[in-house]
Amino acid sequence: MNKRWLWLLMLSLAALACRISIDTFDTPPLATPIPNLPASATPGIIQPPTFTPVIIEPPATATPTAPVPALTVEQLKNGRFDLPGPDGAPHTVQFQAGLFQKGNDPAEPGYMAVVMTDSIAFGDLNGDGASDAAAVIVENYGGTGQFVSVAAFLNRGGTPVYAASYFVDDRAILNAFAIYNGEIYMDAIVHGIEDPLCCPTLPTRQVLRLWQGALVLSSFISKTPTGAERIINIEFPSNDTEAEKIFTLRGSVSIAPFENNLVYEVYLPGVAEPLTRGPLMVNAPDLGMPGTFELPLNFSAAGYTGPVRITLSDLSAADGSLMALDALFVVVK
């Protein structure tokens, strides 16, 4: 076979192969066309979250409180105060150099002379940090009586304001007078059982406290004729603490009282009369010896919570006068 025929044969075979390929693998039908989608919304631009910046200020510096001016003797001895008179009602007293006088004749009705003595002490009486004052005042309403009392004055912005008084005795003699740890201390000679009115001889050490608007005894110690001190000491609980509605008060005495009996009284704020009162037996080995005591107290029945003052007193069997006292100040919770 010549080359020409061979070439024609090869062309024929190539054409046949192409036909078989096209017939066998026809183009597949198109899939269902995708419908037109709605136009895309304008894409939202996601912004990073914004925060209102917190401005951190430096801590505020507290404006320093100006110290309360201290009270002075001049203010007290020239002050105008409403002091209790002999009838218990307040009487306006305008001191001038420590003296106030109403009327000129002690024999005339209505005569009154009030002297603020030089026994004046300064210190904080109500726990507010300001320096308050206490002064010994002597009153005369005609006659020989010279009625000695202690008056407490609170510091209100540098001005003395009368708070309360405590009567000491007629013609009492004060040897020492001071304010210490929020209480008023005085060394005073007062009348004993057999003393004439002119001449008190009983040495005492007395402590006063401003409590709920009243000036009350916190402690009273006297001496026997031999010089021994009658002391009542409440040892539990401590003053100025909280107490349960049911608790037991405990303490001791330096000299057992007559028939080994003290008197206890429980006071509430603003009430002059005691809530309850009764005897308390002292355990002592012999008459006049040191002893101990326990006083169970129950405030549950009364349903009371709040401040209370509890006093234990040794009273004279002869005339009922006070010979020793100790007081407890707690808050029943």
How would you characterize the overall build of this protein?
It is globular and about 55 Å long. The chain folds into two domains: 68-223, no CATH class; 226-333, Immunoglobulin-like. With 333 residues, the chain is mostly beta strands. It has helices at 3-24, 73-77; strands at residues 80-84, 90-94, 99-102, 112-123, 132-140, 147-156, 159-170, 173-180, 183-190, 202-211, 214-223, 229-230, 232-236, 241-243, 246-253, 261-267, 276-281, 291-298, 306-315, 322-332. The protein contains two helices and 20 strands. The strands form four sheets. Strands 8, 9, 10, 11, 12, 14, 16, 17, 19 and 20 form a ten-stranded mixed beta sheet that branches. Strands 3-4-5-6-7 form a five-stranded antiparallel beta sheet. The termini are far apart.
How is this structure best summarized?
Helices cover 8% and strands 46% of the residues. It is mainly beta.
Please mark out the parts with pLDDT under 50 across 5 or more consecutive residues, or reply none. Answer: 1-51
Order of helices and strands: HHEEEEEEEEEEEEEEEEEEEE
Helical content band: under 10%
Q: What's the total helix number?
A: 2
Radius of gyration: 48 Å
Question: How far apart lie the N and C ends?
Answer: 134 Å
Q: How many strands appear in the DSSP assignment? A: 20
The fraction of residues in strands falls at over 45%
Query: What would the principal axes of the Cα set say about the shape?
Result: globular
- Structural class comes to mainly beta
Q: Please tell me the overall pLDDT.
A: 86
**Total domains:** 2
